[in-house]
């Protein structure tokens, strides 16, 4: 644990170097290489090596091209590669350590093309060995030192190349995942908006249809039957309140109020609410609605329950708005793995269905649950809506 504070400065330094102007970094690197190459000229060893300004300039030629090592890597590599043996041949003084060559090999391994970096590696290995063999008369350990240094510099460059490629791939993957996440979020938002639009249509169309029917009937009986007129206006008010409550639940308008008051939102409608819906329609629209259930009822998933309720609601709304019917029949048949909802009326028949958004939304809602919806004339006239929804264990396969 105590080593962490001493090394915590490394990451900021590396980050700063990566974000600094490349020419500034490479100029500093070239100056450092020139300084290292000048040490043997400033502090010569005892021996017969001649020390001249021409030799120092050749040493500078092995460092200055490094300023452009990233912009023109192959060109700067050749410049250093030619200046280094020239310095060794001139022998005033000869290069003890190939500082520029090590940087060149690292740069070519990290940034050069395959042919370029292999050419440089082979050239520097052969050049070092031949120079030491025919000019320097080096000891065996010097061969190992230069060859090992050359290979290590090249290996470090290859590691940098691999690390840069890995980092780039990780960044590309992160960007792809971010784009996919954004697309998935957009799709989820679009689906949620479509669901809210369907629910709002179901609620408003149903409530407004009942209110219109009652509003039209109220003035007719206001003088002859005041009690019936009062009941009509009460039905209008009840339908409006119910529609407002459902709209608040869908749009989340009461979120903050619920949080302050500690109240919960109303649950989504389900099949248990069908009797109440039928009573409301019968009372509000002066329409006789009968409900029959066959088969063995069982528990369904919440989305199937909502789809079934909305299907009956939309069918009855369509009957109230367009059919001019006197009675309607709602049938629920529980099959082995399917729930069939059938709503028929004795109204005008297929002419009263304009093919609007209500029936289209009904089909979409059924299809989203893995079911089907059919509309058309009834067997004895009037209009019929048949919705089949999965109610068995293979519901996931039906949806898929």
UniProtKB/TrEMBL annotation:
Residues 303-393 form the Histidine kinase/HSP90-like ATPase domain. One of its GO terms (molecular function) is protein dimerization activity. GO terms for cellular component: membrane. Pfam families: DUF7134, HATPase_c, HisKA_3. Its EC number is 2.7.13.3. SMART domains: HATPase_c. Keywords: ATP-binding, Kinase, Nucleotide-binding, Phosphoprotein, Transferase, Two-component regulatory system. SUPFAM superfamilies: ATPase domain of HSP90 chaperone/DNA topoisomerase II/histidine kinase. CDD domains: HATPase_UhpB-NarQ-NarX-like. It is an enzyme of class 2 (transferase). Transmembrane segments: none annotated. Gene3D superfamilies: 1.20.5.1930, Histidine kinase-like ATPase, C-terminal domain (3.30.565.10). It comes from the Bacteria. It catalyses: ATP + protein L-histidine = ADP + protein N-phospho-L-histidine. This is histidine kinase. It comes from Streptomyces lincolnensis.
